[in-house]
Amino acid sequence: MSPTTMTPTSAAAPPRVEVNYRWLLLLASVVPVLVLRGHRTGLLIYSGVLSFALLTLVVWLPRRVADAERRFTRDALRRLSTGDHTGLEALAARQWLLRTFGRKHVIPETLGLSAAAAGNHELARQRYAVALSVAPPDERLRIEVNLAGEELATERWTEAEGRYRTVLRRRPDLSIALANLGRILVRRADDGAEARETLSEAVDVLERALPLADTREQTALRLLLAEALIRVRAPQARWQTVLERAVSEGADAAAVSRLEGLARP
Fold first, then answer.
1. What is the pTM assigned to this prediction?
2. Which of 10, 120, 173, 203 is the most buried (most CB within 10 A)?
3. How far apart (Å, rounded) are the C-alpha atoms in residues 235 and 242?
């Protein structure tokens, strides 16, 4: 993969002026105090209103938002479990409080899950990308893995490979990232001039993925590992052991036959 480059702009961008609205509001709250400093009653009323507003923002509103997120998550999971994707879209559209004051990644991530479950991988990819762009650091890994999966499903091989590599730098033992990176590398070896090097990396990645993978996925990964070993010209005993284990686990006969044919000179 070629390194990412920054594209220079044709003209210098004008300087941006950013306003910190919290400081602006703090300054604005002081102005009435100065105006009302000679009016004790007015000052008391203003202090009461300001205290109520602060109490609302600091205590009441966060609780309401947290409750809204819990309800939304609960109801969304129920709709996902029954395949009610239309109902989930309608539920998300009603979440004004959560959209305005809540964690910004929650709704697009949930809608991404819905689109993926419905088989609309392009829409799921777009929604996960939105969620990732606004997610806090401690929520990004899960979303990034899901986004990489949708990039893989929509055949954005380069993007998916780069994203899985990024994920594995933070979680080297994440089985789904290892397995899917292995799949991408085996496929990419068909096109690249450095096929042997790519296949050697695929072997390493898939061997790391296998003991970590769910037992239901191990047979498919063994077939993929056997293919990489055959194509990289590993000793016959090595790939044959992997292939025989896959056969013992009930691997598809046609897939096994294809690999045995690939191994013939």
1. 0.77
2. 203
3. 12
